[in-house]
Amino acid sequence: MSAALSWHRDKQRLLMLLLGLLVGLEFLENGMFVFAASYIVGGVHAAPREFAQAQAAYAIGSMVMIVLQQWLSRHFGYRRYLTVSLAIFLAGALASAASQDILQLSAARLVQGFGGGALFTSSRVLIPMLFGAKERGLAVKHYMLILFGMSACAPLMAAGFVEGWGWRWIFLAILPLGALAMAGCWRLLPDGAGRGGEPVRWAVTPLLMVAVALTLLQLGLSLAPYDVFARPAPLAAMAVAGAALLLAFLWQQWRHHEPLLRLRELRNPVYGMGLLLYFLHYLLSNASNYLFPIFAEHGLGFPLAAVGWMASFSALVSLAVAYGYIKLAAKMPNKKPMMTAGAAALAVAALMFALLPSDASAWALLPGLIAKGMFGVMLVLPVAGLTFRSLSDEAFAHGYQSKNLMRQLAGSFSGAMAAIALENRQIAHGAPAAMDGALSVAAQQTLLHSCQQLYGVLALLALAAAAVVLLQRQLK
To answer: Which positions fall inside the Major facilitator superfamily (MFS) profile domain (predicted)?
Structure first.
């Protein structure tokens, strides 16, 4: 009996580590991809405008998989669903590493997105399914710490791989971890997890509708930084058509008795406010993460490895704050001050970066990096804990599915807007909006000033987000 109990406890611990590995794997791979994007562009001989299509391809595949997540898990169970998804994710990584041109890379990233889209939502939804009330807190702790820990490794690992072995190792490096996760899913997940109930019947029309809508929106957002000034009309038409199709899909899902997205179950003011605060976090976070490598490497002139260390240091601050929050959260009955301080921390970081001189040392960036790392946790973790508290276990799965769909759209929107704003600032200063290769001193100064102007805007947006957090009454 004691041996059986010991194995049960060991298996529960392994399951906690497995769920953290699943979400950490996607965050690690995407973090390395974003950090090394300019080197991957050169590797496949693509223009930045063409490379945007490869970035969009992953997001499209991921969002389609998020929409299908409930249908697939009900039919096949999470054991088979996640094992096959990981196989698709790793096949996409292999194909990405073998790509010789942008078309091959885009196709490979689309495949990888189909697999990767299953990981974040499924791993979080499985926690209430696999663990009782007493173990759930420990499972969430492992989940969060592994997520933030692997995210912290991404910039430094990307810099090391690119400088040591080349850009293809950005994709090859995740294969051992992915294989370990596959084995863990097949060996540890219960066969019936996620199955049962009444499976949603296969419906081709809404799936095609949402796939086309997301493709139009994602391509429009990805191509906007390169075409918004030259060809605004086609981009506007693409955006309007995509938005109209997405609204039609949501309306169809609202009225359907067996929807892919159960929107009617999510009519809750607490959940709605939580989604808004999630949106603000992803908007600010993605814009900040897009801007910092450009600012540090091309604006201030730091080498890639140094920028990798800086970004990883900021992420390690997030990890430390996350650990402290997990330890002390139960002693904080009112979390609104912490959420407000989190948004304000990004405003402080952005203002510090905006005021740096062009010859600033790495030490001068340290206070801003610490504040940036604090923002990475102080807003989103309390929001994560409060948003879903009023939802049932079944509604939680649908709520997390919708939240991650919004996460992808918010990330694409903020990245596109940051790129457009940076290009606009460079044009306003009379310089070309290019960052390929070494920049002249004048071009570097122009880019630095453009980044610092955007950091000023980011500081104002972060203060506005802090005001929203402070004034709202649903999440406390």
So the answer is: 15-476
Decide if pLDDT at 198 tops 70. no
Instruction: Please state whether 187 falls in left (phi above 0), alpha (psi between -120 and 50) or beta.
Output: alpha
267 versus 67: the higher-pLDDT residue is 67
Look at 65-69, 250-254, 287-291 and tell me which has the smallest mean pLDDT.
Answer: 250-254
Domain containing 32 equals 1-199
Are 424 and 449 a contacting pair, CB within 8 Å? no
Residue 238 burial (CB < 10 Å; 0-12/13-18/19+)? buried
**Number of domains present in the structure of the chain:** 3
Hey, what are 378's tokens?
A: 């102080």
Among 229, 259, 289, residue at a domain's last position = 259
Q: Are residues 92 and 208 in the same domain?
A: no
Decide which of 102 and 442 is more confident.
102
Tell which of 199, 217, 242 closes a domain. 199
Q: Do residues 117 and 147 share a domain?
A: yes
* pTM to 2 decimal places: 0.84
DSSP, residue by residue, 167-205: TTHHHHTTHHHHHHHHHHHHHHS-TTTT--S-PPPP-HH
Asked whether residue 6 carries a pLDDT value surpassing 70, the answer given is: no
Residues 6+ apart with CB under 8 A from 140: 127, 326
